[in-house]
C-alpha cells in the first residue's frame, strides 16, 4: 500500500474525463456511489469503457493512490469489482474474503483506506447464490463444523442466519441480503474510525448485492449521507 501521490485521470458518471484523481474525481460519498452505478450500468449493457487501464494511468498512479471507494467483497471468482463497476488502476481499494466476512485484518484495511487515503465510500459487496452463506446454513442445520479454517467463515455468517430466522426469512438470497446488512452494521460497530468518519460526513457505507446472471448491483443497506440522495439506500437503511 502507498500514500496518496501523483494524480491520474478518471471519467465522471457520464464516462467523460472528470480530471485528476483527488482534484475533480469523486470526493464525496454521493459522487463515489454515482461513479460505481454508472460503471455498473456500462457493464450490464455491454458498453464498458475500461477506464484507467492504460500505460498512462499505470504511470500516473505508480507513486501513490487515491481510490474513491473501498470494496469489501466476497471472494467468489465471479465478483471481480473492477470489471463489475468498469473501473481501472487506482480507482478501487478491494478487500475480499469468503462471504465478505470481516476480521481484524479486513477492518484494518478499511481503516487504512478511509484515514490515510481519504476514501469517501465503503461498499460491502455480496451476491446471490452465495456459497459461503449456503455452507453456513447447511452446517448450522446439521450441527456439523467444516474442517480447518472454514469453520471461521461459518461462524462469521451464523449471526446473519439467526437474524434471518428472527425475521422469518428462509430463502437463500433473502438471507444473503440480511448478511450484507449485518456486515455493514458489524463494521460500524467494530471500527471506531469508520463510525467516526460516517458520523462526520466524510464517509458513507453501503451494502450492495450483485446478480450473477444479470450483472446488476442493487442497494440493500446504507449508512451515512448518501442515504439522503439514494432512494434505494434510504429505503434499505
Automatic annotation (TrEMBL):
<keyword id="KW-0862">Zinc</keyword>
<feature type="region of interest" description="Disordered">
    <location>
        <begin position="1"/>
        <end position="29"/>
    </location>
</feature>
<protein>
    <recommendedName>
        <fullName>Carbonic anhydrase</fullName>
        <ecNumber>4.2.1.1</ecNumber>
    </recommendedName>
</protein>
<comment type="function">
    <text>Reversible hydration of carbon dioxide.</text>
</comment>
<dbReference type="InterPro" id="IPR036874">
    <property type="entry name" value="Carbonic_anhydrase_sf"/>
</dbReference>
<dbReference type="Pfam" id="PF00484">
    <property type="entry name" value="Pro_CA"/>
</dbReference>
<feature type="compositionally biased region" description="Low complexity">
    <location>
        <begin position="11"/>
        <end position="29"/>
    </location>
</feature>
<keyword id="KW-0456">Lyase</keyword>
<dbReference type="InterPro" id="IPR001765">
    <property type="entry name" value="Carbonic_anhydrase"/>
</dbReference>
<comment type="function">
    <text>Catalyzes the reversible hydration of carbon dioxide to form bicarbonate.</text>
</comment>
<comment type="similarity">
    <text>Belongs to the beta-class carbonic anhydrase family.</text>
</comment>
<dbReference type="InterPro" id="IPR015892">
    <property type="entry name" value="Carbonic_anhydrase_CS"/>
</dbReference>
